[in-house]
Write a structure and sequence with these properties.
This protein has three domains: 54 residues, no CATH class; 73 residues, no CATH class; 90 residues, no CATH class. Helices cover 80% and strands 3% of the residues. By secondary structure, the chain is mainly α. A two-stranded antiparallel ribbon has the order 1-2. The radius of gyration is 25 Å and the shape is elongated. About 3% of the residues have low confidence. The chain starts with a strand and ends with a helix. It is found in: Cell membrane. It is a multi-pass membrane protein. Keywords: Cell membrane, Membrane, Transmembrane, Transmembrane helix, Transport. One of its GO terms (molecular function) is gluconate transmembrane transporter activity.
Amino acid sequence: MVIGNSFGDIYIPGVNPLLLLALGLAIVLGGILWLRLHPFLSLILGAFAVGGLTSVDNIEKSMEAKYHSASFRAKINELVKERIGELKNKGGSFEEQEIRKTVKKELNPSEKDKLKSDAQAKAESYSKGNTTLSRITSAFGSTCGKIGILIAMACVIGRCLLASGAAERIVRAALALVGERAAAVAFCGSAFLLGIPVFFDSLFLLAIPLVKATWLKVKKNYVLFVVALVAGGTMT
């Protein structure tokens, strides 16, 4: 049986998750490195490709695991609170971790089955009621709610660095310090240090103008500079 995923009103066959991972990486990196697209556009295109080719079966399995984990934790926490309340009323001593282990072991099998069936029902409802576009927009909105301002400011600062010539001045100073042959090492090291206090996505958007300025100066190794930046930033 072929399991498909809906992209709007179009149904397409599911694709192996490893192939989806490779495809997503190829679209994002290829868009940035070879097509010279803005990172945001490359990420959106990658999201649409991966989301559109993900099978309904994989979506349901993922959401079922998510819902089941959340409901199981909530049930355990509820039972632990009840048990602690009973012990407090009796004046007995207790250790929360031990109570939690005991509650997990004593949880009724029928209750476990109910939690699993509820998670399956929620997962099926989610897969049927959410298209690729709605999933992407929902995830994008959630991400913007958490770090949207930081990313927006990184875009603004990066653009200002490039337009004002500050990026080129920084690159010239770095190249003067380590030399053009070691420019990739400079990007990797600086990205590693900046990646400690800064989100990688913000760091990437901020440093891409520096990479572009270096490439415009030396006229080579654009891919190497980007890879060095990514390698340094993802270490932290």
